[in-house]
Recover the amino acids of this structure.
């Protein structure tokens, strides 16, 4: 493959370390077991219980019994790499085609083993519309994945019940949650800008993902996976996937971010960058067959400590895990004459007819993001870092990014004619080029178009309650009465009478006395004085009573009215 060696990414999908299957191919599993399933559907990597009537778990129960594996770590309801590896092992032992797909031949082999062991099973139970197995003498209790506590990665962005793709970041071997979040932030490119000196384009720094952030929720698991062996990591990631599957979110893509990566001194100790499969399948070689029902998101794995462009590696893996794009590259030992490529529409097809059907209308087009990407690298002084002058083949990049018919690669012979790609270079060929290319971009945009980004249940908009008018207080009464003789109730006043508790007061004075009454009220707008006239809320009046007489003030305000009375009684 034409790729700069100094920045080669290790992308091979390593299914198992040699120690996982230390038994030889002639060392069969135990014949003493209790889980004997009735399987009726073909399952392969990426299958889940929710779509296969619980049969993934039934297959895993059989495998855990047959190979004496702890079901708590193995039975997850998700057909991942570990399950695929044991299916391949089982198929090799039984002399079956060993592709890791549990189909009718594998089902028959399991049934024969069950019969030979005298284990009976029943298909009378159903889960959904697909029969599932029950055993006559079960000794192992099926495990239910524990729920997982997920946190918002981007504050205020997520809507859990929205029609969105849910990315769930899980850290592996980070020292702390904060270190993991910082690494994930750099990988994600959520701010739309490249990191690492302007050379590393995370998925949301690349179009069309950058313009469709509202189609995604982004979560993270605060609990870091810690394991020192590859097998330990694999076991824990399988458990995490099952728990994430049990979270209640739809269209979930677990993103496992591993701080440590494979090196020449420690071969295959850690999970290498890859995805669990292809997230979108075309039923035929036509874009018209793209539907939301064909979308089956799968987990992706990325190592953080890779040189320069590993955020772009995340975009590459999401190309597999969500959008169903194939690897358009090839690596040793695949780059050998006669090596059959891996065919997968829309970007790795077998015939020119398929290619013309899929992208004939786009021939000659260039993904518009290519120009921005190239300019950004030049502006940041990174073009010569990624593409040194001595790698002259990069000079053909402008032509190779245009849609056409390019033969070879797709994990086959570079010079072979058994596969056709739409572009010579794209992010699915090497993550050094952070551009999908027009054909792949159309696939991405089509898949994103299946999602509205909005809540599936219209949000309840609270009806604002009317602001209650402030409660007006009732007017107060304030009367002070004095007489010129210095007798009487000269200190009387501020009775504070309300309308409901009007008060009569009696004051005795000598005949001929000059009586002064001062009135004052708060919370009143006006008053009616004894003479029946409207007046202010405070004032002074003088009287020389000749007979016993009651004097009354009524104060009116927004809170009602208050009445103050004083009875002036003559003393003989």
């Amino acid at each position: 493959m034409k790729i700069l060696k100094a920045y080669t990414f290790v992308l091979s999908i390593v299914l198992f370390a040699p120690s996982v299957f230390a038994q030889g191919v002639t060392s069969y599993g135990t014949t003493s077991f209790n889980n004997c399933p009735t399987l009726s559907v073909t399952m392969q990597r990426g299958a889940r219980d929710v779509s296969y009537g619980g049969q993934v778990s039934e297959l895993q129960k059989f495998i855990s019994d047959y190979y004496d594996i702890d079901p708590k770590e193995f039975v997850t309801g998700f057909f991942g790499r570990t399950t695929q590896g044991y299916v391949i092992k089982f198929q090799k032992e039984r002399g079956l085609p060993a592709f890791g797909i549990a189909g009718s031949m594998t089902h028959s082999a399991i049934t024969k083993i069950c019969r030979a062991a005298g284990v009976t099973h029943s298909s009378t139970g159903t889960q959904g519309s697909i029969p599932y197995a029950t055993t006559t003498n079960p000794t192992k209790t099926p495990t239910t994945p524990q729920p997982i506590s997920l946190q918002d990665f981007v504050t205020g962005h997520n809507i859990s019940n929205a029609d969105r793709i849910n990315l769930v970041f899980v850290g592996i071997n980070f020292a702390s949650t904060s270190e993991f979040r910082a690494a994930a932030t750099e990988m994600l490119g959520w701010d739309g800008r490249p990191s690492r000196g302007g050379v590393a384009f995370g998925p949301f720094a690349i179009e069309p993902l950058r313009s469709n952030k509202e189609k995604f929720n982004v979560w993270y698991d605060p609990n870091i996976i810690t394991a020192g062996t590859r097998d330990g990591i694999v076991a824990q990631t399988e458990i995490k996937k099952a728990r994430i599957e049990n979270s209640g979110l739809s269209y979930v893509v677990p993103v496992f971010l591993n701080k440590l990566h494979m090196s020449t001194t420690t071969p295959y100790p850690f999970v290498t960058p890859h995805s669990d499969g292809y997230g979108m399948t075309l039923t035929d070689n036509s874009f018209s067959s793209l539907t939301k029902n064909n979308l089956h998101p799968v987990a992706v794995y990325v190592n953080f400590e890779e040189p320069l462009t590993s955020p772009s590696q995340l975009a590459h893996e999401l190309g597999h895990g969500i959008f169903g794009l194939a690897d358009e590259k090839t690596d040793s030992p695949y780059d050998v004459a006669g090596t059959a490529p891996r065919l997968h529409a829309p970007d790795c097809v077998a015939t020119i007819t398929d290619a013309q059907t899929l992208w004939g209308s786009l021939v000659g087009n260039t993904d518009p993001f290519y120009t921005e990407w190239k300019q950004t690298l030049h502006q940041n002084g990174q073009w010569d870092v990624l593409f040194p002058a001595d790698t002259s083949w990069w000079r053909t990049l402008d032509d190779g990014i245009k849609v056409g018919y390019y033969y070879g690669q797709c994990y086959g012979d570079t010079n072979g004619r058994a596969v056709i790609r739409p572009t010579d270079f794209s992010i699915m060929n090497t993550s050094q080029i952070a551009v999908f290319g027009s054909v792949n971009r159309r696939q991405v945009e089509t898949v994103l178009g299946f999602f509205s980004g909005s809540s599936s249940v219209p949000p309840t908009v609270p009806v604002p309650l009317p602001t209650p008018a402030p409660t007006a207080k009732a007017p107060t009464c304030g009367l002070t009465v004095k007489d010129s003789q210095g007798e009487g109730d000269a200190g009387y006043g501020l009775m504070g009478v309300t309308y409901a508790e009007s008060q009569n007061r009696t004051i005795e004075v000598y005949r001929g006395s000059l009586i002064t009454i001062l009135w004052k009220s708060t919370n009143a707008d006006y008053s009616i004085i004894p003479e029946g006239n409207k007046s202010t809320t405070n004032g002074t009046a003088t009287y020389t009573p000749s007979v016993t007489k009651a004097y009354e003030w009524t104060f009116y305000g927004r809170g009602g009215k208050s009445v103050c009375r004083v009875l002036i009684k003559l003393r003989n």
